[in-house]
Amino acid sequence: MAVDVIAYSEEGDVLLELVGLANDLAGHTGGKSFAMLMAGGVADPGEFGSFVTGGIYVVKGVPATQSLQEAAPYMLSEVARRHESAIVLLGSTRNEKVTAGRLAAKLDATVATECSSVAYEEGRLNVKRLSFSGRAETSITLSGRYVIVCMKPRSHQKAERSTERAQVTQLEVPVPETPVRVVEVKDKPASSIDLTKAEKIVSVGRGLKKKEDLSIIQDLAEALGASVGCSRPLSADLEWLPEEAHIGLTGVQVKPKLYLAVGISGQLQHLAGVKDAGTIVAINLDKSAPIFGSCDYGIVGDLYQVVPEVVRQLRALRLERR
Questions:
Q1: What is the DSSP letter of 26?
Q2: Would you state the CATH architecture of domain 3-172?
Q3: 112: part of which helix (H) or strand (E)?
């Protein structure tokens, strides 16, 4: 039996990655790739039709008083039931993991989140997912008429545009009344920080004594041409840096070529966010800090002495190269 693959995400870049994966999977399942878009959402249906082989579903009907997380499972279940069997792909983001759980209940489907890779073999879907705060990878097999998979962002190449355009189907899905009501929507202030795309990151932790000392870290980042990140306490507890700078299991997961951890002990929750970094360099006063067990290069020393010296050396090197 052919199995179709349906991609959905509220985020444009993630959706393109999921469609790329859907196209690859459909080549093995004997089915076609589809995408579901919300009317007025993240992508133009006409343009997006050139990325899939099966079709585009454009869904209307999200009441202004309901959240997208309440409505999306109803819409996705309606789309999925139009297929005899389907794999539904979502992003492993905070909102879409909630959507996946509710959708699984509606479809009586199997579901896996935090997935890093997926392959279809002999009628079964084999996935690898992160566990133990990202320190281990588990292989599991999913089966059933409907299977739901939440893929970690940046785990697959984006879809490539083709010369053909798939059919666009307009749907209006009634969403039942729920006890949850949206009473007001406020735009979140735009942030210039996007650590997921940074090639170099200087990240700071509780080893920094006061907010004013962030200038030391910023000097180092400037000398390296890097972005500034932090561990959870500096953004969530002390509010020295915005939440977009928080790297870790409950923050952003990054994949820079160079990650410099300054004054960060290296607990599992933080290391889960940097496990895909190319090279990790640690500076910490505590020689027994866990970060030294996960870094490529380590300096045991006081950041207030080490960082200014590193900055001085980098600036001198830059002058020599001019």
A1: H
A2: 3-Layer(aba) Sandwich (3.40)
A3: strand 110-121
Model pLDDT for residues 240-289, shown as the tens digit of each residue: 999 999 999 888 889 999 999 999 999 988 998 998 899 999 999 999 99
pLDDT of residue 42: 65
Q: Where are the domains of the chain?
A: 3-172, 195-321
Extract the runs of DSSP E, i.e. beta strands, from 25-154: 30-38, 55-60, 86-91, 110-121, 124-131, 136-142, 146-151
Tokens of 148: 């739901």
**Tokens, residue 241:** 């840096």
DSSP letter for each residue of 206-231: TT--SGGGHHHHHHHHHHHT-EEEE-
Asked if residues 265 and 284 have their Cβ atoms less than 8 Å apart, the reply is yes
* Contact predicate 141/126, CB 8 Å: yes
User: Which residues, 6+ apart, have CB-to-CB distance to 77 below 8 Å?
Assistant: 103, 106, 107
Residue 137 to residues 16, 250, 289: CA-CA distances in angstroms?
A: 24, 18, 24
Rg over CA atoms, the chain = 23
pLDDT in tens, 26-53: 999 999 999 999 887 766 777 778 899 9
**Cα–Cα nearest to 150, from 77, 203, 72, 95:** 95
Kindly state the average pLDDT of the residues 186-199: 78
Extract the tokens encoding 174: 């009634």
Residue 110, SS3 per DSSP: strand
What architecture is domain 195-321?
Answer: 3-Layer(aba) Sandwich (3.40)
Same fold, 3-172 and 195-321: yes
Interacting residues of 182 by C-beta distance below 8 A, sequence separation 6+? 64, 65, 66, 67
Mean pLDDT value across the chain: 91
From the CB of residue 53, how many other CB atoms can be counted at a distance below 10 Å? 18
229: helix, strand or coil = strand
pLDDT tier, 208 (very low <50, low <70, confident <90, very high otherwise): very high
Put the strands of the sheet holding 200-204 in their side by side order.
227-230, 200-204, 258-262, 279-284, 297-300
pLDDT for 322: 76
